[in-house]
Amino acid sequence: MRTLCIDIGGTGIKGNVLDITGTALAERVRIETPRPATPTEVIATAVEVGRRLGAFDRISCGFPGVVEHGVVRTAPNLDGEWNGYPLADELEKRLGKPCRAANDADLHGLAAIEGHGVEMVLTLGTGMGSGLYIDGRCVWNLELGHHNYEGDETYEDRVSDAVRKKIGNKKWRRRVGAIVSRLAPIFNYRRLYLGGGNAARLIPADLPANVAIVDNKLGITGGLKLWAEDRTIVP
Ligand code: BGC
Fold it and tell me: Could you tell me the pTM of the whole model?
């Protein structure tokens, strides 16, 4: 059973084919996210990622916005009209295999968590993604990134990649630290995982003991969980 896992991001669209154990069966493919990132262009690129990877039996897709039952609701860092876009159906039709789709951060976390107690993930990339898990089950589509942090600024406004480039890594790290300190007493998670393309810029020694930096590649492997875990309810 080979699963094509696609991770649609604001900067790149990545994919690989994994076996049932999560072992990659091919070299990862990455194509820049087309701009403007309209549904037509983005889906054409995701399909191209799949075609370059060759044979697979089913598809998982992580998407940078709210996804309900395979249908997109929001896409804050993409362009054009995404609300109502039938993401899973479209990829299924174009690539000829069954497809399931979910929020990118939710999938990232599914690959990182241990599966007991309350666990959380924050993804630090183009935007800020978030995921919440209880005994291994995901509370789908938590959108902390768009919660107000201070004044008109959201969490995402504080730590997005565009802002990091403006304020520099040192200040950006302090901002991430402040977000972690704010979330800890609210969610009382057992473990928090920091992923996404910019997590590698953090310094592990600066973080509390129950916070771990995880590999951005989990964005792809998490896709497997949409099919593999009996307990997982497809969002
Ligand atoms: C979106 C989230 C997404 C995150 C990371 C945010 O802007 O609202 O749904 O997980 O970016 O891609």
Answer: 0.96
